[in-house]
Design brief:
Length: 286
């Protein structure tokens, strides 16, 4: 067993590996897109890894370092190579990489099957990370407008206050790729909240969705997003601690289809768990 683990070579993920990454996530039934991986590599080209055994790609893991904390995601090993500690080796490598950057708190969204591994590595459960889906007719609302490129500086500052660190790369690429799904709530030039989305096949994904104050702002953003999504099936990730977001979605007949566990190596630090965060951006990046 130990020899097999040692024989795995862990190398940097390159753009040429993205087809392999997509094959892995598709086999797991995840909603990942090629753009998701491109954005992660753009955020940190040195932070994602592929495991090889005898020249064959057998697994992967991605990190998303911010500042005080970072996320680990997309840990997948091919089914025929499981049970040999390759997943653990990839996780340890990812955690060592984050520590090398000075990132002390490591976070992830873990599926139930992987919880024992994460707990052995020092992660603790914080809250359920819910996955919901539904449809919205929606309508354009007063005080809600499209996000423009000129908004990015102030939007990033607003988002950083709520999330805990800058997500500027992800906000910019989301706006560039799906401008029709990016909306801002403001009052006399002051940002009250925003919502962004992306598409994966026929499904429209909501996130991030951040509200500074007021349930009415959240409702208006969601309604405007529903109108822009043109009746497509919507999916969203919400921490169970985001009670206002969860209740609003349930009133709109969104149903829970699955959940994972938001976990952290330092649960006392409530990074990325602010009640201002109405939707996660993605499981791999918080």
């Amino acid at each position: 067993m130990e020899g097999e683990v040692l024989s795995m070579r862990i190398r940097l993920m390159q753009r040429d590996d993205l087809e392999f990454a997509m094959d892995l996530t598709s086999a797991e039934g995840w909603m990942s897109t090629m753009l998701d991986f491109e954005e992660i590599l753009l955020h940190d080209p040195q932070g994602s890894f592929v495991g090889e055994v005898n020249g064959q790609d057998v697994g992967m893991v991605c990190t998303v370092p911010y500042d005080s904390f970072g996320f680990i995601g997309n840990l997948i090993v091919l089914p025929e190579w499981r049970g040999r500690q390759y997943g653990e080796a990839l996780m340890v490598h990812a955690m060592q990489y984050l520590r090398g950057l000075g990132v002390k708190t490591h976070m992830l969204d873990g599926v139930e099957m992987a919880i024992p591994l994460y707990e052995r590595l020092g992660f603790e459960k914080i809250a359920k990370s819910l996955r919901l889906e539904g449809r919205l007719v929606g309508e354009k609302m007063d005080g809600i407008r499209p996000i423009m490129h000129r908004d990015l500086k102030s939007l990033t500052e607003f988002d950083s206050l709520c999330f805990g660190c800058s997500r500027c790369v992800f906000l910019e690429t989301r706006l560039e790729s799906f401008p029709e799904l990016c909306m801002l709530a403001e009052d006399e030039g002051r940002i009250l909240g925003y919502i962004m989305g992306s598409r994966s096949g026929d499904i429209t994904r909501i996130g991030p969705w951040v509200v500074g104050e007021g349930n009415e702002t959240a409702e208006k953003l969601l309604s405007s997003f529903g109108e822009a999504a043109e009746g497509s099936l919507l999916r969203i990730g919400v921490l169970e601690t985001s009670v206002t977001a969860r209740d609003l979605l349930r009133r709109e007949d969104f149903r829970e289809i699955s959940f994972s566990w938001r976990m952290s190596t330092d649960p006392a630090q409530e990074w990325s768990c602010s009640t201002h965060l109405f939707a996660i951006c993605s499981p791999a990046r918080g």
